[in-house]
């Protein structure tokens, strides 16, 4: 029914339009009266809108002798009746004739009135579009009507003529009524214009959806919603209408059609394509203006004033009176009893001295702080609060996981047996591992177990974020060759040992220590087979073997060439042995010196007596060459001689504050230099020139002055365990070996920190030794290698020492994960001796 009603209204408007266009239009009213009429018509239409009978609502009129009729009003105020399909067929032929006469009369009257009311009967573009749509629908229904019988066709024509007659009669009545209202309103408006005090105010028509967005989707035919429209690229339709029917895509022209439309269509430049329907939409002038304002970075609304005067609702001026105008309560004028009690208590506290005023509190604070002094030339950068002002540094992000962390990594990422052992060896130094985990391979992801170190890693990450300081560092692009020092060629640094010349075989167990005679003719060695052997260097022949009661930990030949004494540490006994090799006069002189019993007037303390006991060797040991025995209360690990040969020092790591002892041969007296233990002592050393004593604990090296009996210097090694040390013959440089595969070179005149750290070995470094004449030093390690290095120390204090590794000697065999245990230089020649776990002593020349 709704479609039929729209169609009927459309046909009325089309007929009126044709009648207007066919007649000659002539108007004699001037432009001012036309404008007044338009304003007045607008005012009347607004009054009609404000009336109780709203536009667009269905109204029902009833009479005593007629059925119920429904009327619908269009936009111009005309009412059209809603007829059922069967009404027209019930009317008689007389009524049809009557309606035809009325329609003819109405059309004649409309032709006379169209000349005066031309502007009132204009048809909107939207109505024309509706009419065109209805015409299309009529054409679609025509074939159906042709197939109907003749009787039915005649009934339909009668019904149509009756409807047209009724609509034309209603339109005529409404037009006459509106015309009368217009003339009355025009007269009133003229009288108002004559009065200068009155001003004409045309009320604005309030839109239905002015304050809401309800009508945003009212005209949308496509109901697919806010979705990407490219989803329908593969289909012939572009969506669905309100009746759930497909909306067919409009036909697309080719390039020629676009070119012709660009030339012929004046609105081509302002047409855009609606993605919802695929049709061209012409932008209005308001849309064009809005786009221009947005492109020019202006406010989209032209009525908005950006520079309107600003009203300061809240100002910086303090008001004397409150802005609120609320009357005060009655209780606000009465004194508070609780406040009176508080004030009385405070007054009593002030009188009794329990409470102090603010002035007294500030005065006491100033007295407690005392006078404040300022730097005369202080700068802003030195102040603490100024130095704290800096940009925050964000925490560095963790590295993204790589292929090694996959549950099914490539074969090249899986550790082999060698890599697995190296990774396990670095258990104590996990920061040196390339990967903090061992890559594993699983057939599927469901077989991967829980990561056991997850909580630990999260905890360490939180600690890094919470405790580690952050700083921005500028990345420097430095050439790697620039960082490598320019070292001389090893050929220019000869002589130094290069090949293995002799192998001294005879021990059956580990050879822990070796020592060379001061003249360079003999060498002594100590082994775990409880024997001490004396060898001839030139021939490799074992001259003498001395058996002991315990494992020999250390042997040391006296550096004084006028004496022939060997100090041997076997268990908790220190044996002073005359080897009976070399010059016979020297051997006799040594026996006479050790046989004399000195007369000591001083009394030894109980602390020394309980730690050391001197005794003469028994007859059996005398035959072996043992002359004196110094018994200690703990096992001895190391023995070292003073340069003059009268003092010998021993180290007992388990002796606590009596770990280091110094023995004097000429007086047969022992001393305990330290009353407190500063750590677990590993080895000691005498300075070759000065009266200084070097004591190496597990982590540090302390230097003491024996004359002043005070600590001179403490060297920081930054290592976990020190294994040995050797001092340069000039006494200004110290070389320290550690079990964490490092050698530390200390320049005693430069700093307490290492001058250079050498990481030449792959395993623990057991010992180091300087040559007495040549600028050479050697290191022994568990990786079965002896590395010979050139270490030149210059007399010019401004020139740093030159350290160059020159040769790696590796001929020993491994036994129980031990390699080379000790190393010693020939006193005259550039030869080096090494003792290893393979029960051999090797000479490199």
Beta-strand share of residues: 15-25%
Taken together, the total number of domains comes to 4
User: What is the CA-CA span between the terminal residues?
Assistant: 123 Å
The CATH H-level superfamily of the largest domain is YVTN repeat-like/Quinoprotein amine dehydrogenase
Name of the CATH first level of the largest domain: Mainly Beta
What is the strand tally? Answer: 36
Roughly what is the average pLDDT, rounded to an integer? 78
Per CATH, what is the topology of the largest domain?
A: Methylamine Dehydrogenase, Chain H
Q: Give a quick account of the main beta sheet: strands, pairing sense, barrel closure.
A: 5 strands, antiparallel
Helix content: 25-40%
Backbone structural class? alpha+beta
Supply the number of helical segments: 17
Spatial order of strands in the largest sheet: 13-14-15-17-16
Q: Which of globular, elongated, flat, extended, rod-shaped describes the shape? A: elongated
CATH architecture of the largest domain: 7 Propeller
């Amino acid at each position: 029914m709704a479609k039929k009603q729209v169609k009927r209204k459309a046909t009325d408007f089309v007929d009126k339009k044709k009648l207007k266009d066919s007649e000659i239009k002539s108007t004699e009213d001037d432009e001012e009266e036309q404008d007044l009429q338009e304003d007045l018509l607008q005012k009347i239409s607004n009054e009609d809108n404000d009336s109780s009978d709203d536009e667009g609502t269905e109204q029902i009129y009833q009479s005593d002798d007629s059925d119920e009729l429904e009327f619908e009003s269009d936009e111009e105020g005309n009412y059209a009746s809603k007829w059922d399909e069967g009404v027209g067929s019930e009317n008689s032929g007389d009524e049809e004739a009557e309606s035809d006469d009325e329609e003819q009369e109405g059309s004649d009257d409309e032709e006379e009135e169209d000349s005066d009311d031309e502007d009132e009967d204009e048809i909107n573009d939207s109505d024309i579009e509706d009419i065109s749509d209805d015409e299309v629908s009529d054409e679609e229904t025509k074939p159906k009507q042709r197939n109907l019988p003749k009787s039915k066709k005649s009934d339909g024509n009668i019904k149509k003529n009756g409807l047209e007659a009724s609509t034309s009669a209603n339109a005529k009545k409404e037009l006459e009524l509106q015309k009368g209202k217009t003339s009355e309103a025009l007269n009133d408006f003229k009288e108002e214009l004559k009065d200068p005090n009155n001003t004409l105010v045309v009320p604005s028509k309030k839109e239905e959806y002015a304050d809401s967005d309800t009508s945003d989707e009212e005209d949308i035919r496509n109901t697919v919603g806010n979705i990407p429209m490219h989803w329908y690229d593969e289909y012939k339709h572009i969506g669905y209408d309100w009746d759930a029917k497909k909306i067919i895509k409009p036909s697309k022209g080719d390039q020629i059609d676009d070119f012709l439309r660009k030339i012929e269509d004046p609105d081509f430049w302002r047409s855009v394509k609606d993605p919802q329907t695929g049709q061209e939409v012409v932008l209005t002038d308001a849309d064009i203006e809005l786009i221009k304002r947005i492109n020019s970075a202006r406010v989209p609304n032209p009525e908005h004033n950006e520079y309107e005067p600003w009203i300061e609702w809240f100002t910086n001026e303090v008001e004397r009176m409150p802005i609120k105008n609320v009357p005060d309560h009655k209780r606000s004028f009465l004194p508070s009893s609780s406040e009176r009690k508080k004030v009385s208590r405070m007054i009593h506290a002030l009188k009794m001295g329990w409470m102090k005023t603010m002035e007294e509190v500030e005065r006491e604070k100033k007295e407690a702080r005392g006078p404040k002094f300022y730097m005369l030339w202080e700068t802003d950068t030195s102040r603490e609060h100024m130095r704290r002002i800096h940009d925050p540094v964000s925490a560095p992000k963790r590295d993204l996981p790589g292929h090694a962390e996959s549950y099914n990594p490539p074969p090249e990422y899986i550790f082999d047996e060698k890599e697995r052992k190296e990774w396990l060896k670095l258990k104590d130094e996990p920061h040196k591992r390339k990967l903090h985990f061992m890559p594993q391979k699983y057939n599927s992801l469901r077989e991967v177990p829980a990561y056991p170190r997850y909580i630990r890693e999260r905890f360490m990450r939180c600690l890094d974020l919470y405790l580690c300081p952050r700083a921005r560092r500028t990345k420097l692009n430095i050439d790697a060759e620039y960082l490598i020092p320019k070292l001389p060629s090893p050929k220019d640094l000869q002589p130094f040992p290069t090949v293995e010349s002799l192998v001294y075989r005879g021990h059956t167990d580990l050879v822990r220590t070796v020592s060379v005679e001061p003249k360079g003719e003999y060498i002594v060695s100590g082994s775990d087979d409880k024997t001490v052997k004396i060898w001839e260097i030139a021939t490799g022949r074992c001259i003498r073997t001395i058996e002991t009661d315990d494992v020999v930990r250390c042997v040391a030949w006296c550096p004084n060439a006028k004496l022939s004494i060997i100090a041997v540490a076997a268990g908790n006994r220190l044996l002073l042995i005359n080897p009976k090799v070399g010059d016979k006069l020297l051997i006799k002189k040594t026996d006479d010196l050790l046989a004399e019993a000195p007369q000591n007037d001083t009394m030894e303390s109980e602390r020394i007596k309980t730690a050391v006991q001197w005794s003469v060797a028994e007859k059996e040991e005398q035959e072996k060459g043992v002359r004196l025995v110094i018994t200690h209360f703990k096992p001895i690990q190391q023995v070292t001689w003073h340069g003059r040969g009268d003092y010998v020092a021993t180290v007992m790591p388990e002796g606590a504050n009596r770990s280091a002892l110094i023995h004097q041969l000429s007086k047969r007296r022992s001393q305990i230099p330290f009353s407190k233990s500063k750590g677990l002592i590993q080895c000691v050393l005498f300075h070759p020139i000065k009266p200084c004593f070097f004591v190496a604990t597990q982590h540090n090296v302390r230097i003491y002055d024996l004359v002043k009996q005070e600590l001179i210097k403490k060297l920081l090694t930054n290592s976990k365990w020190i294994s040995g040390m050797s001092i340069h013959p000039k006494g200004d440089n110290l070389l320290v070996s550690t079990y964490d595969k490092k050698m530390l070179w200390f320049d005693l005149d430069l700093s307490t920190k290492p001058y250079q750290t050498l990481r030449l070995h792959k395993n623990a470094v057991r010992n180091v030794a300087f040559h007495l004449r040549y600028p050479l030093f050697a290191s022994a390690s568990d990786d079965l290698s002896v590395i010979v290095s050139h270490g030149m120390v210059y007399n010019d204090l401004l020139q740093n020492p030159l350290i160059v590794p020159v040769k790696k000697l590796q001929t020993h065999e491994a036994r129980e994960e031990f390699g080379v245990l000790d190393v010693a230089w020939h006193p005259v020649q550039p030869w080096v001796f090494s003792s290893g776990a393979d029960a051999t002593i090797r000479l490199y020349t």
